Amino acid sequence: MRAMVYRGPYKVRVEDKEVPAIEHPNDAIVRVALAAICGSDLHLYHGMMPDTRVGSTFGHEFIGVVEEVGGSVQNLKVGDRVMVPFNVYCGSCYFCSRGLYSNCHNVNPNATAVGGIYGYSHTCGGYDGGQSQFVRVPFADVGPMVIPEWLSDEDALMMTDALPTGYFGAQLGDIEQGDTVVVFGAGPVGLFAARSAWFMGAGRVIVIDHLDYRLQKARDFAFAETYNFNEHDDVVVHLKKITDYLGADVAIDAVGAEADGNLLQHITSAKLKLQGGSPVALNWAIDSVRKGGTVSVVGAYGPMFSAVKFGDAMNKGLTLRMNQTPVKRQWPRLLEHVQNGHLKPSDLVTHRIPLEHISEGYHIFSSKLDDCIKPVIVPEAA
After folding, report:
1. How much is the mean pLDDT over the chain?
2. Nearest Cα to 284, choosing from 275, 292, 295?
3. Domain residue limits, the chain
């Protein structure tokens, strides 16, 4: 099969790899119909994530058709069109039984922290991802879901990570009726978080970014008030001014490890790899939320140290909530929203790229060229 292969920071190519085989009776093999490049894939691409090994295939967002199933699989059959959550999880351990699918204890040797994630380094279990023609799906009776006939492929693809993660970010904020919510980052997750905040009763939604085309999308798609942080001497002071000098009720960090806005922090994290991620957006969230407010973190960070303003959070009495998204837990309500016409997830898709051209896709997305917001990878166009 053809698959994206990592060859080092900023180096990806498409190569021939062995078609994955059934390794356990609970496995399924899925022929990938669509995959996507996620903003967190760029952390791997830029060399930010520990133990990202040469030869790995990225891609934790994918849908496809079941090609083969193991002898124990009962809920899927060959030919089923399925969407697969980015979490690899067993469904039965201490954490899965509590709905914490992203913290599964049985799928990752490093399970004291994160569970398993497709295509996201050996820190997250070493599973090959879906930026390829085929992918092995462990615990196939637990994770994948047969896609409803009424749901389009691209809408289903957004359900595997970007939409549930944005929705989860708003959920973690414990938004109350009339709250002011500020979202840092106008990538797909931030845009979905901002849109979801309205569903949860927000009275005002503000999005912060530095790219005008993404801020325009935040106005058009998420109906948000927007500010470019490059146009303000101190974006935190600006946010205080426009919130009666109190601060927002809820702040959502949808940026993560490669936040711009502070040159020193960006260089020590993104360039010198001295931190697990640039904490600029997270520190802005801590500083701009009101005393007693809530900070939600769904932007991805590595496991190393980051210079976070924890003392400020403590002294302000903040609630900090965060996790990798337990995707399947979000699906029932999100499917309702999509089916009822409240949301069309594929509205964020801007590029459709053949698998053979995936290196160009990474370059476009990484460099924010051509007003790229969400690139989709099409394996059969290879």
Report:
1. 92
2. 295
3. 2-161+326-381, 162-322
